[in-house]
Design a protein that fits this description.
CATH topology of the largest domain: 2-methylcitrate dehydratase PrpD
Structural class: alpha+beta
Shape: globular
Number of domains: 2
Strand order of the largest sheet: 5-2-6-7-8
Order of helices and strands: HEHEHHHEEHEEEEHHHHHHEHHHHHHHH
Number of helices: 20
């Protein structure tokens, strides 16, 4: 199975890839469907969108209702200016109508027509969305279900039934020279071809694109990640949502600057740099800013933090190394997605921050010259020590414990890399076995610990 680096890493807006980016993508897929209904849409006067499972339980905190409205207004996650969000939503609230290109004007009340279903999840996945198109009498013209399966990926019922977590139609499997779908295959192919993981991944990406274009797009991804860090370390104030969580990255960053990188008060101050980079990204995400899913928004801070650590703190680091980092990280992320899940609503935070930490460890190990076997070892170490991690956001907001959790995920990634580079790549638990363990653990995990805010910290901490 081939999952592109540009599918694993997507530029979007916060606070959630599955609850914000995915629903916006689903809206556009549904509108394309309606345009093809051979004239039936001309009778439509109303549209409703019902959110099921985790999309309902944490939808308000994750801005899922706003994402649906923005998608209906034509916004796309990769191009939407975050500063336009509130004016667009206010305009819809006043108009109560949708003027969708290619369709008649349709009535739509954000307060009534985005429906939160707090009953059981739909059978196939925790993140379901049902679209209903109605005529003047209230009769149903069309109904369709999409699932947001993590990382901004959206599939229909048929697509989800065919294969778990398969790429959507436009990301369908294509012939590539190195079609590895497991870590074992990845290592075997690399050994047979005498190529690194990044070199194999790059050749796969270049099947339908020029190398210079692929590298330019990778550089654009890193520029977006780096820009998010830089914005996050300059912003102060209180994050939206009602928890009154204070942004801390900017203050910590200024403390670190005053202390100086060359003469830090403690040897472990490098951990502070990792933490501030990660927190800067996730504070931006929590505020609805522009981030890169890596592989999700809730875990968006880990990979940028470790990449920035590589550039700022590792001798000999350069842009070529960043490309190696991101290509390798994407290769590991694709294997995890294909064989388990990157959705917190499906397997808990082990699938989000755990996956991001494994990807970051693999990327850093490769950028620092690690062998393929050491890269696979680093990814396994990082993922293994996130197994069982629940997703229990307080008030359904991607803030507590999510922001700090990214900082710790980044630290674990660097630690995993260090351990792997001190060895020769041989180790006891293979990455494939760890990924399968994560999948099984996620299936066994009780629903209240999978992004529903009905268990864990979400119910044991008084919201202030």
């Amino acid at each position: 199975m081939f999952i592109s680096v540009f599918d694993i890493f997507k530029i979007g807006i916060g606070p959630s890839s599955s609850h914000t980016v995915g629903p916006m993508v689903a809206v556009h897929r549904y509108l394309d469907r309606v345009r093809g209904l051979a004239g039936a849409q001309m009778d439509a006067v109303r549209l409703t969108v019902t959110l099921h499972g985790s999309l309902a339980f944490t939808g308000r905190g994750h801005a899922t209702d706003k994402a649906v409205c923005l998608g209906l207004l034509g916004a796309k996650p990769d191009t939407l200016d975050p500063d336009r969000v509130e004016p667009m939503l206010q305009g819809l609230q006043q108009a109560q109508r949708l003027a969708i290109p290619g369709l008649p004007e349709i009535g739509f009340s954000p307060d009534k027509d985005v429906i939160f279903d707090y009953g059981p999840s739909l059978p196939l996945h925790a993140n379901g969305m049902t679209f209903n198109l109605l005529d003047a009498s209230g009769a149903l013209i069309d109904t369709f279900v999409y699932f947001s399966i993590g990382g901004g990926f959206v599939v229909s019922e048929d697509e989800l039934r065919k294969t778990t977590n398969a790429p959507v139609n436009e990301l369908a499997v294509q012939p590539v020279p190195f079609p590895f779908s497991s870590a074992r295959e990845m290592l075997d192919m690399g050994r047979d071809a005498g190529l690194s993981i990044a070199e194999m991944k790059l050749q796969n990406e270049c099947c339908d694109s020029l190398r210079e274009d692929v590298e330019k797009r990778i550089d654009t991804l890193w520029a977006a990640m780096d820009s998010c860090i830089n914005r996050g370390i300059t912003q102060a104030g209180i994050l939206p949502g009602g928890l009154k969580v204070k942004r801390r990255a900017a203050d910590i960053y200024q403390q670190l600057i005053r202390e100086g990188r060359s003469n830090p008060p403690f040897e472990h101050s490098v951990v502070d740099w990792l933490g501030v980079y990660a927190m800067a990204v996730n504070e931006e995400n929590a505020a609805g800013g522009r981030v890169v899913t890596a592989p999700t928004n809730g875990a968006a801070g880990v990979i940028p933090a470790v990449t920035r650590y590589y550039l700022d703190h590792c001798p000999g680091a350069d842009q070529a190394g960043v490309r190696v980092f991101l290509l390798t990280a994407a290769a590991v992320g694709g294997i995890i997605k294909a064989n388990a899940s990157i959705s917190g609503a499906e397997v808990g935070c082990q699938g989000e921050v755990g996956s991001a930490s494994a990807m970051a460890a693999a990327g850093l190990c490769a950028a620092l010259g690690g062998t393929n076997e050491q890269v696979e070892n680093a990814a396994e170490i990082a993922l293994e020590h996130h197994l069982g991690m629940t997703c229990d956001p307080i008030a359904g907001l991607v803030q507590v414990p999510c922001i700090e959790r990214n900082a710790l995920g980044a630290v674990k990634a660097v630690t995993a890399t260090s351990l792997a580079l001190r060895g020769d790549g041989t180790h006891f638990v293979p990455l494939d076995g760890c990924i399968e363990t994560m999948r099984q653990t996620g299936m066994d995990m009780m629903e209240q610990y999978k992004e529903t805010s009905r268990g864990g910290l979400a119910v044991n901490i008084v919201e202030c």
